[in-house]
Structure formats: C-alpha cells, structure tokens
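Morning. Coffee machine broken again, so started the prediction first thing and wrote up yesterday's gels while waiting. Chain of 141 residues, entered below exactly as on the submission form.
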Amino acid sequence: MVATYENLGIKFSYPENWKLHEEQAVSWPRSVSVYSPNDAFWNVLVHEPGTNMESAAEAVKEAIEEEYEGVEVEPIQEKIEQFDATGFDLFFYCLDMLVQTRVRAIEAGDLRLLIVCQGEDREFDKLNQVFSAISVDLVRN
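Came back before lunch.
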C-alpha cells in the first residue's frame, strides 16, 4: 500500500511502511524525507524560486566529499518525466559499507527541487525503482 504526502506545494506517494519526516523550516530550503525500514532514504528539498539548482546539487556533493574520504563522483544529466535533472551519483564507504547517494536538481515549473536518495549499496539497488517512482510521482504532481 502507499501513503501520500501533500504540503509545501508538493505531493508524492511513498510506501506506507516507510517513516516520514518533515522539516517545517521558516527559511529555505524546506525538507521532507521518507525512510525505508532499513534506513535508506529519499529526500526532497524545496528551494525558493530563483535558486540556482546546479549550485544546490554541487553543495550537497561537496558536503559529502568533506565528510567522507575517497568519494567517487559521477556527474549525471537525465530526464525525470519531461524535466531535465542534473546532479551526481556518489559512492563512498561508511563503517565498512559501500553507500550510494543520488543527487538530482530539477526545475519543475515554479518549483526548485533537490532530490537526494541514499542507502547501503545492496539496499539501494533493491530500492532504486522505489526511489525513481517517488521522484516521478513528485514531478507529475
């Protein structure tokens, strides 16, 4: 079954057994995350209109590179539905586990969205279609 989130000018569906965390910040960006039962997560940051989203994606990449040694980075450009998405796929070790992080910046009409998905490598591979489905649902709504 699925649950639906609708607030902050966005709407998306996610698995109902995942935990939702919404950060109601007074300032930008505003953030909503959903966590799998095994702690992988899908996160969207809603930025204010006019934000340079490529710079926002770069800032997330740089933060991860500062936190972890030996981060492998692959620049990515793709489509999520009809919208161009730019960002990075990152791979790094944390506590002897390989971690994958996907960062995508999207300008969808007036919305400025930064999507970040992360999980341990094997779990990430299993949840890849779920992460993609949540992202597609987000930009469709």
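The helical segments are 53-67, 121-140. Going to sketch it on the whiteboard this afternoon.
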